[in-house]
Amino acid sequence: MRVAAATDALSRAETKAAEAENAVSEYIKSQASAFKEDARMATKVDAATAEVDQARHRLQELNEQPTAQNAWDGSANAKALGALTDRDLNEVRKFSKPPHVVRRALELVQAMLAVADGTESLPPSGTGDVQWAELQRMLARDDFIRQMLTLKPAALSARPHLLTEIGERWPSLQEAAAVAAANDARLDAKVAASMAATALDGLRKSLEEAERLLSSAIEAVERRRERDAKWREGQAERDEAARRAAQAEIERDLASRTARPPAAWLHEHHIKEDLSAVAIEFATVSASLPADASNSLAKIASELRSSVTLRLHIAGHVQPDEDARLASQRAMNVGGLLIALGVLPLQLRAKGYGARAPIGPGEKRRLGLKSLRRVTLHALAEVRTRTPCEFGPGELAPLESEAVREMVRAVAALMQLDEHKEVRLSVEGHSDDHGSAAENVRISLARANAVCRQLEGLGVDQARLVPHGFGAAFPIDDNGTEDGRQHNRRVEFLVIPTCFAAAVRSDATAASTGGRGMGEGLSSHLSNRPGVAKVLRLF
Predict the structure, then answer these.
(1) Would you say residue 100 lies in a domain?
(2) Same domain flag for 148 and 295
(3) Rounded to 5 degrees, what are φ and ψ at 382?
(4) Which end of the chain has fewer CB atoms < 10 Å from its terminal CB, N or C?
């Protein structure tokens, strides 16, 4: 039994010895691993110490260079830092749990500012809310940006032991800064290249668009020139056809009379019966043509084109509570549409009568009107003469000849016949195109006045004569020849419609008492705006 007990004790002893040997073996292994870790850590410490030494050496170099601060102030980083606003900082402060890189960057800034302020120890580093609150308070300081911009290397290098600690906390600071700078440089280069390419592409497109617009403009100018040339050619042909037609009608009229026709006679024009009741009604306080006016005026224009000697009076009116000037504007707009439809301006006379020519209920019903806001159209009669009333160049009196004197006497005699005692004449003077527009209007009006004085001397009441001067706006012949200019220096006689004679007479009376009559007002109007007469001839 004692042997068995000893054997058991020996077995237990051997087991314990084996466990002890295993424990020793594990301890030896652990000591070896710790030695390796210590060696690795020592290597890291040596590397960090070298980085700190390099940083300290670099700071000493910067302190020895007087322009180091200026270089920082002018760097892109300094400009970017100076561009920060309170709004930018507030965005960072709003983080409840900031990204790790943001926290680490702000901790570094906090540490550097602490060193510059003269502290003997660095602020603690960590991830707690207390440490983040400290960083938020740092960002909220009013002088935070100024402190960053005025941070000097000398203030940092004065405490090398703190710089060593900074190097231990951020061992790869310089390497990361160098990599970031290189990345920024490459990015700036790429951005600059992209912007340059975009600018060049935009310039190329702009040049292409400019070339296209220039080409279109040149084509448009060429088309316009061609249209203008065709229009001038066609207008000359139309004017010549109108002159020949008018002359032929006069000759036919003369041939239908006695072997020796009178020196002057009244010739009446007539418009078709179905067009005699045409009236254009306007909206209140408006001179714009109504939508349904085109159809009626198209029929009028067709008849005027077929009879170039037909003269049409366009009379504009307003209601008593409207501006009287609307009457003239309405008449002008109707005339403008007729000209656009191919009517010669020479065939039209337009005048605004304000509210001075009212009509009764029966006439309103006949014209289909609901108000007095209207334009009415009337065929005009004219006094024709066997001998034209023509003038020499620059002369204000008619050519001296027995035929001309006989013509003037015949017009005066015609006006004094009982059957024509209510007739009132628009005495219209014209000139050739030599001289300025204003001078031609003045001369043409003077010629009309000269003929009026001759008629008054032969017994015609001045109130029955209204002079007008149209300058060279309405030639009846070619101003390129002497004979053509001679024909254009003339005076013609149109009969004022009886229904408007009183209104025209009041205009003439206003002119004689110092006001502006039709002749005076029109001549001033044409001298100030000679181009208007080429659009519409006023009556």
Answers:
(1) yes
(2) no
(3) -145, 155
(4) N
Tell me the whole-structure pTM to 2 decimals: 0.49
Q: Is the pLDDT of residue 492 over 90?
A: yes
Q: Looking at the structure, tell me whether residues 307 and 329 fall in a common domain.
A: yes
Instruction: State the DSSP code for 423.
Output: -
What is the Cα–Cα distance from 384 to 404, expressed in whole angstroms?
Answer: 13
Per-residue tokens: 31: 């000591």
Q: What is the pLDDT of residues 168-177, one digit of tens each?
A: 777 766 555 5
Domain check: are 401 and 513 in the same one? Answer: yes
Does 364 have pLDDT greater than 80? yes
Please report whether residue 232 resides in a domain: yes
Output the six-digit token pair for 267. 């010739």
Give which of 531, 518, 524, 462 is closest to 350, Cα–Cα: 518
| Section 157-170 average pLDDT | 73
What pLDDT sits at residue 521? 35
Lowest pLDDT segment from 246-255, 379-388, 468-477: 246-255
Mean pLDDT confidence for 474-501? 87
How many C-beta neighbours within 10 Å does residue 341 have?
Answer: 16
Neighbour-count burial of 323, counting CB atoms closer than 10 A to its CB (0-12 exposed, 13-18 middle, 19+ buried): exposed
Q: The tokens of 278 are what?
A: 């045409």
Helices (H), 416-481: 437-457
The answer to whether the beta carbons of residues 123 and 111 sit under 8 Å apart is yes
- As a whole number of angstroms, the distance between CA 521 and CA 181 comes to 82
Pairing mode, strands 374-379 and 425-429:
unpaired
Q: Rounded to the nearest 10 degrees, how much is the dihedral formed by the CA atoms of 90, 96, 97, 100?
A: 10
Token code pair at residue 193:
């290249």
450 occurs within a structural domain: yes
- 3-state SS, 339-396, equals HHCCCCHHHEEEEECCCCCCCCHHHHHHHCCCCCCEEEEEECCEEEECCCEEECCCCC
CB 280 within 8 A of CB 513: no
User: Element (H or E) spanning 81, and its range?
Assistant: helix 76-82
Same domain, 4 and 115: yes
* Residue in the block written with tokens 């906090």: 110
Nearest CA to 504 out of 364, 354, 363, 318 is that of 354
- Domain endpoint, select from 352, 380, 408: 380
Neighbours of 319 (CB within 10 A): 16
Q: Are strands 490-495 and 389-390 parallel, antiparallel or unpaired?
A: antiparallel
The pLDDT of residue 441 is above 90:
yes
The predicted-structure confidence for 312-349, as pLDDT tens digits, reads as follows: 889 999 999 999 999 999 999 999 999 999 998 888 88
pLDDT at 534: 40
Quote the CA–CA distance of 330 and 482 in Å, as a whole number: 39
* E strand segments, 166-273: 264-267
Asked which of 314, 349, 380 is the last residue of a domain, the reply is 380
SS3 98: coil
Residue of higher predicted confidence among 245 and 491: 491
Residue 360 · residue 452 · CB < 8 Å: no
Containing 26, the helix (H) or strand (E) segment is helix 2-64
Domain boundaries, position 316 = 270-380
- The confidence score (pLDDT) of residue 532 equals 38
